[in-house]
TrEMBL record, chain A:
Protein source organism: Ailuropoda melanoleuca (Giant panda)
Protein name: Vacuolar protein sorting-associated protein 16 homolog
PANTHER family linked: VACUOLAR PROTEIN SORTING VPS16, VACUOLAR PROTEIN SORTING-ASSOCIATED PROTEIN 16 HOMOLOG
Stated role: Plays a role in vesicle-mediated protein trafficking to lysosomal compartments including the endocytic membrane transport and autophagic pathways. Believed to act as a core component of the putative HOPS and CORVET endosomal tethering complexes.
GO MF, one annotated term: actin binding
Gene: VPS16
Source superkingdom: Eukaryota
GO biological process: autophagosome maturation; endosomal transport; endosome to lysosome transport; intracellular protein transport; vacuole fusion, non-autophagic
Annotated Gene Ontology cellular component terms: CORVET complex; early endosome; HOPS complex; late endosome membrane; lysosomal membrane; recycling endosome
From TrEMBL, chain B:
Lineage, highest ranks first: Eukaryota, Metazoa, Chordata, Craniata, Vertebrata
Stored Gene3D superfamilies: 1.25.40.850, 3.40.50.1910, 3.40.50.2060, Syntaxin Binding Protein 1, Chain A, domain 2
Primary location recorded for the protein, binned into one broad class: cytoplasm
Protein known as: VPS33B late endosome and lysosome associated
Gene behind the chain: VPS33B
Keywords annotated in UniProt: Protein transport, Transport
Family classification: Belongs to the STXBP/unc-18/SEC1 family.
Length: 839, 632
C-alpha cells in the first residue's frame, strides 16, 4: 500500500498530485524538441512537429519536415514542407492541423498529413507578416488569433465559418507584447496582452487597461500568462518570479506564489480537475518542473530532458524524447481509498476483499465495520469510481473486484454503474493501448462522449477497433457499425492502387445489406476521387434506385439514370432525368432515347400536352404517329383556333394525317366536319343565330325549330342523315313546337321508319291525348297494346291482347286495370285466359 | 373474429390520427388544423400565418370538407374560398393559398395570377399546397413561367380517406384516366405509399393476390418500400389476412352496367361525393337541398344500401309502419312511461323518422327518373348484351338511343358495353355507330373514340382474329424474347376482351329456373337483378377459394393478364384465424357500389369480411366522362 502512494506529492494540506508514465516514446526524434515547432491536440490527441522551421538561410536546400505522431509516438505522417515559413501550429477540435504561415495563410492538414484546404487571415498580413499566432478552442469550434508585424491582432473565433475580426489598436504599442493569450468570455473571443507592467484587454470594440487585484508590487514585466482549459482562470508570471493566480475576468485573486526564479519559464499551464477546489499551475523551465498552488511550498520535479506540456481537462500531459507522462491532482475517490491510514469505507472494502482472497477472517471484521457504519453502498460506489481513475489495469481490476465483493452484501444495489464502469474501462484500456495511442482519462472520455471517440478512431482509420467497440457497447447499428463501415468504404475508394472491381467487391462483401449504409454516398465519394467507373459499380449495390439517379446524372450517365429512374417507379424522378436529358442531348437523340422508354415517353407527352404543344407535334412526327397527329390537329381546331378558316385548315391537316394513318373513317369524319363548319358559318350569315359548333343533329333541329324545313331537309340529304334519325329529330322538334298540324302532315308524308309508337309517346309527353289517339290507331300490331295503354284505352287494349292471345300482353293490360272502372275489362281478360288454357 | 372486426371501424380513423398527416399537414396547408393540437396551432404548422384567401381545386373540395369545416378554416384565418378555375381571381387579400393537385394546368393558373399581379405592380404572398404530393414537373412549370421565386410550396400528403367502416378511398378520380388512358404512372407511387401505410398500421399481410399490370407494379413498389425500412412491420401480428389487388381494366363490364342496388342507384342518380350526397328539392320536397352523409351510421341507409331496388320501397314502408307503431305506443302510457319514452326513445325515433323520409324521397325521385327513361328497356338491353343474345336488337336500340340524343354518356356506355361483350364491334357497325354519335353529339368526340379505342373500351372486331393467327404463327417460328415483344406490340393494338369466353368459364350468367328471387339473393348476381355475377367479384371469390390463381390459368390468359396475375404467400402461422377472414380488396382505377355490395354479400355467405381500398368510387358515367373529350 505504501508504495502505491509513493508518487503522490502533497500540495498544501488537502491535495495530492501524482505523475505517472503513459508511454515510453520510441519515436526516434533526430532533433531536440526545442528545435521544432510543436503542437499536441488535447484529449490525448496527436502530436505535430515541424522541424527546422528557423533555418531560413538554408531554406532553399533543406526543406523542413512536418511529422505527425500519435500520443504514443507512432508515426502517422511525414511530409516535406514546401510552403512558406510557418509561425505556429495547432490542432482544431476536429483534429485537423492548422499551420499558420508568416504570410497569414493557414494551411489545414488531416491527421494523416493529407492536405484539406487553406484560408488567409487577411490581406493586411501580407505586408506586415505574422509575428505570432495562437490556435484556441471555443464553444463554436476552433479559433485562430494572430499578431502581425504592425502589432495588431486579428482573430477568427471559428475556422469552420471563417469571419475575420480585426481587433482594435493598443495605444502606444511600439514593440511586441511580452506575452499574450486569447480568452473566451461570454461567447466572445478577446485578447489579453501584457506590455511592460501593463495589461490590456482587447475586445471587438475597445482596448482597456486592466489590473489584476492584489498583484504584488514591483512588477515591471509579465513573462508568461496561462489560461485554464475552461477559460475560467488565469495565471500570470512576472519578472520578479512571482505568480498571480485568479479568475480570467481579473476580478478575483485566488492565490499567489513566489518561486524566486526570475528566468522566464518555457511553458506555464493550469493543472486542475473539474469540480475540484484546488487550483494549481504547472511551470516548466529547461530542467525544472514546478507545481504551484495555494500553498507555501511547491512540488518540484527535475526534467531530465527537453519536455513539452499539454494542458488537458483534468491534468497536464508532459512528453519528451523518451517518455510521455500525465500529471494530475489525485481524484477524491482514489485519495480516500489509498491515502495512508485511510478509514474511508472504500479503503476498508478494498482491504476486506484482499483479506478475503487470503482467506483470512479479517475480511469479516472489515466488512462488519463498514456495515455497522451503514456505509457499504458508499464503499462500493467509491471503489467503482476510483477504478475509473486508475491508469493501471491491475489496479482497476482490484478495485472492481472489491466493488463486486461489496455488492454481494447489498440487497438492492443497481448494477448499471458497475457494469457501465467495466465497459468504459474496457474501451479506455483498448484505446490507451500503445498501438492506438489515445491516452484518455475517464473524465476526458466522459466529456468527449463515445460518439466523438468513435469519430476519432475513424479519423485514425482504426475501423476494426471502432466496430468492435460499437458491437461491445451494443450501439444501434445506424449510429455505430454501419456508420463506421460507410466511413471505411469511403476511405477504401480512395485507394487508387486497387482496381475498381476489387474495391467494389471488397466493399460489398464487408457491407452487404447492412442497414443504414448508403451505397450512393460511397459512390459519390468515389466519384469525388475521380473514379467514375467505380462509382457506377458501387451504385449497382444500391437497393433504392431513387438514390442512384442523382449521382448518375452528376456523372453524366443520363441514359443509365433514366432506366434506373424508371425502375424506381417514381415518376417524379423520371421527370427530373427527362429534363436533364432534354438539356443535355440534341432534340433528335432525346427523342430517340424516349422512343425506347414508353413510360418516359408518355410522361413527357403529358408534359408537352400542357406546356409545349409544338414539341408534342414534333414527337408525333418523329414517330410517324399519324393517328395521334390527326387527333392533335382536331383538338387544335377547336381549342387553339378561333377563326373559321384557321379551324378548317387545322381540320384539313388532321384529315391528311388520318389518311396517312389509314384511318379512313376519321379522315372522312373530319372532312364532313369541315363541310359542316363552312355551312354553319354560311347559315349564321344568312339566317342569323348560332350554328357554329353545334352537332349535325342539333344544326338540323335548330333549322326545323326555326321553321326552315327546306334547308333542314337539304342538309339531311347532303350529310346523308339516315331516315330514322331524321324522323326522330323532326318528331321531337315539331312536338316541342307543338305544331300538331305539321306533325300530322309529316306523319303522313310516308310510312314512318320508326313506327308510330314514338308519335303516341311524344304526344302523351306533351299531354295531348287527342293527338296521341290519332297515332295510336296507326301503331303496328306488336306495339298496339302498349300504345293503347299509353292513351289510356284499357278496354281496347284488352281486346287487342285477347285477339293476339299473347300472355305477356294480357298480364301487362291486367296490371293497368285499376279501380272499379276497369273491373269489367279485368274479368274479360281472366275469362280469355281461362279459355286459352282450356284449349 | 369479433375483436378484429369490432376494432376495425376505429382503425380508419386512427389512420388519420396516428399519422398526423391528413389533418396536420392540412394545417400545413394553412387550411384546417383542428384546435385540438394547440402547439401546432399558430405558426408551427400554418405556413402562411395571417389572413388569406384559399383557392381550392374542385376535386379536393369534398375531401377537405370531410376533414375541415368552415369554422376550422376560419380559425386559420381563411377569409374567402375560391374554386380554382380558368378565370381571373378577384381576391383582394394580401395572401393567397392554393390547394391543388400537382397538375401543369393548375401551375399555369397560379403563374398567370402571379404574373398578372406583377404587371399591376402588386406584391402578395403565394403558397401552393400540393395534394397528395408535389411533382417536379410542377416546379418546372413555375420556373418556366418565371414565378418560382415568388411562390412557396408545400405538400398535403393525404392518401387515405375513410368513407365508411369498410371503405377507404384515396380520392384520386383522375387515376383512371391518367393510368388507363394516358399511360401515366405517376400515382403508382402514391398507391404503394398508401399500402405501405396500411401495412404499418395493421401488420404485414400474410397472403397477397393481384391481377393487372398496375396492381403488379404497385405491389412490387410497395414491397420494395417495405424492404427499405423493414423492422417496423416485422414481428407484428397481421390483422388483415389477405390483400387482393385488381386493375379496373380487368373488368370494365361490371363498371359499365347500370346499378340497381340502392347505394349504387343513388350514386348513379345523384352522384355520391366523398361519402355524402346532395339531395335536391325533388327529394327533400322543400325548396332547400339537403346534404346527407351516407354510411353505416345512417341506420336506415345501412339496412337498404345493399338491397336490390325493388325491395327497397317495401322495406321502407314496413319500416314506416313499425315507426308509426312505436310512436303509437305512447297512447296507452302513464306519466312515468311517457317520461321514459320521451327521454330515451323519442330522439332515436325522430332521427329515424327524418332519415326514413329522406330515403323515401330519394326512392320516389329515382323511380320517377328511371321510368321516364324507359329504364326497363335499358336494363333489358344490358342483360341481352351480357348474355349475348339478340345482338341485332340491342344494336338498333343503341342506335335509337343515339339518334334520339337521350344522353351522350349513356349512349357511349352502351356502345362500350356492346364492344366489350362482343369482343369489339363488327366494322360496319363500328363505323355507323360512330357516325351516328358524331352527328348527334358533335365532332370533337372523334377524339373520345380514339381514347376509348386506346383504353380498349370501344374497338373494332375484324383485325383481331387475323392478328391472333399471325401472332401464334410468329411465336411458333421464333421462340426467343423478340417474339414476346412482337406479341406485346400486337396485343396492345387488339386487346381482346374475350368476355363471352370468360363469362362461360366463370359462370357469370347464372342459369335461373323461373324468377330470380331478389328478396332472398342466392348469389352475387342479385346486384344486377340476377342476370350477371360481377366479374371482378367472381375473380376474388375464386382466388380466395383456391388461395391462389391455380386452375384459373385459362381465365387469366383470356383476361390478357398472362404474366400479371400473382400470388404471394408468407407464413400464416402468426395470423390468427380471425384475421385470416379479413380481406383487403384494392381497386386500382375505382370500384362501384355494386361491387362493394356484391362482396359484402359474399362476405356474409362465406364468413369473410371485406375492406375496400379504392382510388375512388366510380360508376359508368364517371368512367365515360373520364374518357370523353369535351370542348374547354
Amino acid at each position: 500500500m505504501d508504495c502505491y502512494t509513493a508518487n503522490w506529492n502533497p500540495l498544501g494540506d488537502s491535495a495530492f498530485y501524482r505523475k505517472y508514465e503513459l508511454y515510453s516514446m520510441d519515436w526516434d526524434l533526430k532533433e531536440e524538441l526545442r528545435d521544432c515547432l510543436v503542437a499536441a491536440a488535447p484529449y490525448g490527441g496527436p502530436i505535430a512537429l515541424l522541424r527546422n522551421p528557423w533555418r531560413k538561410e538554408k531554406a532553399a536546400s533543406v526543406r523542413p519536415v512536418l511529422e505527425i505522431y500519435s500520443a504514443s509516438g507512432l508515426p502517422l505522417a511525414s511530409l516535406l514542407w514546401k510552403s512558406g515559413p510557418v509561425v505556429s501550429l495547432g490542432w482544431s477540435a476536429e483534429e485537423e492541423l492548422l499551420c499558420v504561415q508568416e504570410d497569414g495563410v493557414v494551411l489545414v492538414y488531416g491527421l494523416h498529413g493529407d492536405f484539406r484546404r487553406h484560408f488567409s487571415m487577411g490581406n493586411e498580413v501580407l505586408q506586415n507578416r505574422v509575428l505570432d499566432a495562437r490556435i484556441f478552442h471555443t464553444e463554436f469550434g476552433s479559433g485562430v488569433a494572430i499578431l502581425t508585424g504592425a502589432h495588431r491582432f486579428t482573430l477568427s473565433a471559428n475556422v469552420g465559418d471563417l469571419k475575420l475580426r480585426r481587433m482594435p489598436e493598443v495605444p502606444g504599442l511600439q514593440s511586441a507584447p511580452s506575452c499574450w493569450t486569447a480568452l473566451c468570455q461570454d461567447r466572445a473571443a478577446h485578447i489579453l496582452l501584457a506590455v511592460g507592467p501593463d495589461l490590456y484587454l482587447l475586445d471587438h470594440a475597445a482596448c482597456s487597461a486592466v489590473t489584476p487585484p492584489g498583484l504584488a508590487p514591483g512588477v515591471s514585466s509579465f513573462l508568461q500568462m496561462a489560461v485554464s482549459f475552461t477559460y475560467r482562470h488565469l495565471a500570470l508570471f512576472t519578472d520578479t518570479g512571482y505568480i498571480w493566480m485568479g479568475t480570467a475576468s481579473l476580478k478575483e485573486k485566488l492565490c499567489e506564489f513566489n518561486c524566486n526564479i526570475r528566468a522566464p519559464p518555457k511553458q506555464m499551464v493550469w493543472c486542475s480537475r473539474p469540480r475540484s477546489k484546488e487550483r494549481a499551475v504547472v511551470v516548466a523551465w529547461e530542467r525544472r518542473l514546478m507545481v504551484v498552488g495555494d500553498a507555501p511550498e511547491s512540488i518540484q520535479f527535475v526534467l531530465d530532458e527537453d519536455s513539452y506540456l499539454v494542458p488537458e481537462l483534468d491534468g497536464v500531459r508532459i512528453f519528451s524524447r523518451s517518455t510521455h507522462e500525465f500529471l494530475h491532482e489525485v481524484p477524491v475517490a482514489s485519495e480516500e481509498i489509498f491515502k495512508i491510514a485511510s478509514m474511508a469505507p472504500g479503503a476498508l472494502l478494498l482491504e476486506a476483499q484482499k483479506e478475503y482472497e487470503k482467506e483470512s477472517q479479517k475480511a469479516d471484521e472489515y466488512l462488519r465495520e463498514i456495515q455497522e457504519l451503514g456505509q457499504l453502498t458508499q464503499a462500493v460506489q467509491q471503489c467503482i469510481e476510483a477504478a475509473g481513475h486508475e491508469h493501471r489495469p491491475d489496479m482497476q481490476k482490484s478495485l472492481l473486484r472489491a466493488a463486486s465483493f461489496g455488492k454481494c452484501f447489498l440487497d438492492r444495489f443497481p448494477p448499471d454503474s458497475f457494469v457501465r464502469m467495466c465497459q468504459d474501462l474496457r474501451v479506455l484500456n483498448a484505446i490507451r493501448d500503445y498501438h492506438i495511442g489515445i491516452p484518455l482519462t475517464y473524465s476526458q472520455y466522459k466529456q468527449l462522449t463515445i460518439q466523438v471517440l468513435l469519430d476519432r478512431l475513424v479519423l485514425r482509420r482504426l475501423y476494426p477497433l471502432a466496430i468492435q467497440i460499437c458491437e461491445y457497447l451494443r450501439l444501434p447499428e445506424v449510429q455505430g457499425v454501419s456508420r463506421i463501415l460507410a466511413h471505411w468504404a469511403c476511405y477504401k475508394v480512395q485507394q487508387k492502387d486497387v482496381s475498381d472491381e476489387d474495391v467494389a467487391r471488397a466493399i460489398n462483401q464487408k457491407l452487404g445489406d447492412t442497414p443504414g449504409v448508403s451505397y450512393s454516398d460511397i459512390a459519390a465519394r468515389a466519384y469525388g476521387c475521380g473514379r467514375t467507373e467505380l462509382a457506377i459499380k458501387l451504385l449497382e449495390y444500391e437497393p433504392r434506385s431513387g438514390e442512384q439517379v442523382p449521382l448518375l446524372l452528376k456523372m453524366k450517365r443520363s441514359k443509365l439514370a433514366l432506366s434506373k429512374a424508371i425502375e424506381s417507379g417514381d415518376t417524379d424522378l423520371v421527370f427530373t432525368v427527362l429534363l436533364h436529358l432534354k438539356n443535355e442531348l440534341n432534340r433528335g437523340d432525346f427523342f430517340m432515347t424516349l422512343r425506347n422508354q414508353p413510360m418516359a415517353l408518355s410522361l413527357y407527352r403529358q408534359f408537352c400536352k400542357h406546356q409545349e404543344l409544338e414539341t408534342l407535334k414534333d414527337l408525333y412526327n418523329q414517330d410517324d404517329n399519324h393517328q395521334e397527329l390527326g387527333s392533335f390537329h382536331v383538338r387544335a381546331s377547336y381549342a387553339a383556333e378561333e377563326r373559321i378558316e384557321g379551324r378548317v385548315a387545322a381540320l384539313q391537316t388532321a384529315a391528311d394525317a388520318f389518311y396517312k394513318a389509314k384511318n379512313e373513317f376519321a379522315a372522312k369524319a373530319t372532312e364532313d366536319q369541315m363541310r359542316l363548319l363552312r355551312l354553319q358559318r354560311r347559315l349564321e350569315d344568312e339566317l342569323g343565330g348560332r350554328f357554329v359548333d353545334l352537332s349535325l343533329h342539333d344544326t338540323v333541329t335548330t333549322l326545323v325549330l326555326g321553321g326552315h324545313s327546306k334547308r333542314a331537309e337539304q342538309l339531311a340529304r347532303d350529310f346523308r342523315i339516315p331516315d330514322k334519325r331524321l324522323w326522330w329529330l323532326k318528331l321531337t322538334a315539331l312536338a316541342d313546337l307543338e305544331d300538331w298540324e305539321e306533325l300530322e302532315k309529316f306523319s303522313k308524308s310516308k310510312k314512318s321508319p320508326i313506327g308510330y309508337l314514338p308519335f303516341v309517346e311524344i304526344c302523351m309527353k306533351q299531354h295531348n291525348k287527342y293527338e296521341a289517339k290519332k297515332y295510336a290507331s296507326r301503331v303496328g300490331p306488336e306495339q298496339k297494346v302498349k300504345a293503347l295503354l299509353l292513351v289510356g284505352d284499357v278496354a281496347q287494349a284488352a281486346d287487342v291482347a285477347i285477339e293476339h292471345r299473347n300472355e305477356a300482353e294480357l298480364t301487362l293490360v291486367l296490371s293497368h286495370c285499376t279501380g272499379a272502372t276497369d273491373a269489367a275489362t279485368a274479368d274479360k281478360i281472366q275469362r280469355a285466359r281461362a279459355q286459352a288454357q282450356k284449349k | 373474429m369479433a375483436s378484429a372486426i369490432g376494432s376495425l371501424p376505429q382503425h380508419p380513423e386512427t389512420t388519420e390520427k396516428s399519422r398526423p398527416v391528413p389533418e396536420n399537414s392540412e394545417a400545413n396547408g394553412g387550411a384546417g388544423c383542428p384546435a385540438q393540437d394547440p402547439d401546432v396551432g399558430s405558426h408551427g404548422a400554418d405556413p402562411l400565418p395571417g389572413k388569406k384567401d384559399l383557392f381550392i381545386e374542385a376535386d379536393l373540395m369534398s375531401p377537405l370538407d370531410r376533414i375541415a369545416n368552415v369554422s376550422i378554416l376560419k380559425q386559420h384565418e381563411v377569409d374567402k374560398l375560391y374554386k380554382v378555375e380558368n378565370k381571373p381571381a378577384l381576391s383582394s387579400n394580401e395572401q393567397l393559398c392554393f390547394l391543388v393537385r400537382p397538375r401543369i394546368k393548375n401551375m399555369r393558373y397560379v403563374a398567370s395570377l402571379v404574373n398578372a399581379d406583377k404587371l399591376a405592380g402588386r406584391t402578395r404572398k403565394y403558397k401552393v399546397i400540393f395534394s397528395p404530393q408535389k411533382f417536379h414537373a410542377c416546379e418546372m412549370v413555375l420556373e418556366e413561367e418565371g414565378v418560382f421565386g415568388d411562390v412557396s410550396c408545400d405538400e398535403w400528403a393525404f392518401s387515405l380517406l375513410p368513407l365508411d367502416v369498410d371503405l377507404l378511398s384515396m380520392e384520386l378520380p383522375e387515376f383512371f384516366r391518367d393510368y388507363f388512358l394516358e399511360g401515366d404512372q405517376r400515382w403508382i407511387n402514391t398507391v404503394a405509399q398508401a399500402l405501405h401505410l396500411l401495412s404499418t398500421l395493421y401488420g404485414p399481410f400474410p397472403s397477397c393476390y393481384g391481377i393487372g399490370r398496375c396492381s403488379k407494379m404497385s405491389y412490387e413498389l410497395w414491397r420494395k418500400m417495405g424492404e427499405e425500412e423493414d423492422g417496423e412491420t416485422k414481428g407484428r401480428r397481421p390483422e388483415i389476412g389477405h390483400i387482393f389487388l385488381l386493375d379496373r381494366d380487368v373488368d370494365f363490364v361490371t363498371a359499365l352496367c347500370s346499378q340497381v342496388v340502392y347505394e349504387g342507384l343513388v350514386d348513379d342518380t345523384f352522384r355520391i361525393k366523398c361519402g355524402s350526397v346532395d339531395f335536391g328539392p325533388e327529394v327533400t320536397s322543400s325548396d332547400r337541398s339537403l346534404k346527407v352523409l351516407l354510411n353505416a351510421e345512417d341506420k336506415v341507409f345501412n339496412e337498404i344500401r345493399n338491397e336490390h331496388f325493388s325491395n327497397v320501397f317495401g322495406f321502407l314502408s314496413q319500416k314506416a309502419r313499425n315507426l308509426q307503431a312505436q310512436y303509437d305506443r305512447r297512447r296507452g302510457m302513464d306519466i312515468k312511461q311517457m317520461k321514459n319514452f320521451v327521454s330515451q326513445e323519442l330522439k332515436g325515433l325522430k332521427q329515424e323518422h327524418r332519415l326514413l323520409s329522406v330515403h323515401i324521397g330519394a326512392c320516389e325521385s329515382i323511380m320517377k327518373k328511371k321510368t321516364k327513361q324507359d329504364f326497363q328497356e335499358l336494363i333489358k338491353t344490358e342483360h341481352a348484351l351480357l348474355e349475348g343474345f339478340s345482338i341485332r336488337e340491342s344494336t338498333s336500340y343503341i342506335e335509337e338511343h343515339i339518334d334520339r340524343q337521350v344522353s351522350p354518356i349513356e349512349s357511349l356506355r352502351l356502345m362500350c358495353l356492346l364492344s366489350i361483350t362482343e369482343n369489339g364491334l363488327i366494322p360496319k357497325e363500328y363505323r355507323s355507330l360512330k357516325t351516328q354519335y358524331l352527328q348527334s353529339y358533335g365532332p370533337e368526340h372523334l377524339l373520345t373514340f380514339s381514347n376509348l379505342r386506346r383504353a380498349g373500351l370501344l374497338t373494332e372486331q375484324a383485325p383481331g382474329d387475323t392478328l391472333t393467327a399471325v401472332e401464334s404463327k410468329v411465336s411458333k417460328l421464333v421462340t426467343d424474347k423478340a417474339a414476346g415483344k412482337i406479341t406485346d406490340a400486337f396485343s396492345s393494338l387488339a386487346k381482346r376482351s374475350n368476355f363471352r369466353a370468360i363469362s362461360k368459364k366463370l359462370n357469370l350468367i347464372p342459369r335461373v329456373d323461373g324468377e330470380y328471387d331478389l328478396k332472398v339473393p342466392r348469389d352475387m348476381a342479385y346486384v344486377f337483378s340476377g342476370a350477371y355475377v360481377p366479374l371482378s367479384c367472381r375473380l376474388i371469390e375464386q382466388v380466395l377459394e383456391r388461395r391462389s390463381w391455380q386452375g384459373l390459368d385459362e381465365v387469366v390468359r383470356l383476361l390478357n393478364c398472362g404474366e400479371l396475375a400473382f400470388t404471394d404467400m408468407t407464413k400464416e402461422d402468426k395470423a390468427s384465424s380471425e384475421s385470416l377472414r379479413l380481406i383487403l380488396v384494392v381497386f386500382l382505377g375505382g370500384c362501384t357500389f355494386s361491387e362493394i355490395s356484391a362482396l359484402r354479400f359474399l362476405g356474409r355467405e362465406k364468413g369473410y369480411r371485406f375492406i375496400f381500398l379504392t382510388t375512388a368510387v366510380t360508376n359508368s358515367a364517371r368512367l365515360m366522362e373520364a374518357m370523353s373529350e369535351v370542348k374547354a
